[in-house]
């Protein structure tokens, strides 16, 4: 028996982007692939907090959404490299702007995040 997936709410661009980029590491994966880190082991080193399995799942989802492509070289052991598709490359300026906003508001964001993580006395 299979679990039937419910259709997500896709009424506007923000719903669509949320559906495609939902996942803790997807934006970073896109950015790092854009920077030239293409092998799964390189991506794992860039995002050490993520398990290899989670990264593989999120890379597969990015591939299914045609944001990244994968080349599998016929060698032993298999060598895999990821690349941004033209569709994926179109997201890079957006990710850059979001990253810049984060940099410009780093102190405030860090304080707010820490305040909400650490219990107050």
Automatic annotation (TrEMBL):
Residues in HTH hxlR-type domain copies: 12-110
Domain of life: Bacteria
Keywords attached to this entry: DNA-binding, Transcription, Transcription regulation
PROSITE patterns per record: HTH_HXLR (PS51118)
One Pfam entry name: HxlR
Record keyword Repeat present: no
Alphabetized GO MF terms: DNA binding
Name of the protein this chain belongs to: Winged helix-turn-helix transcriptional regulator
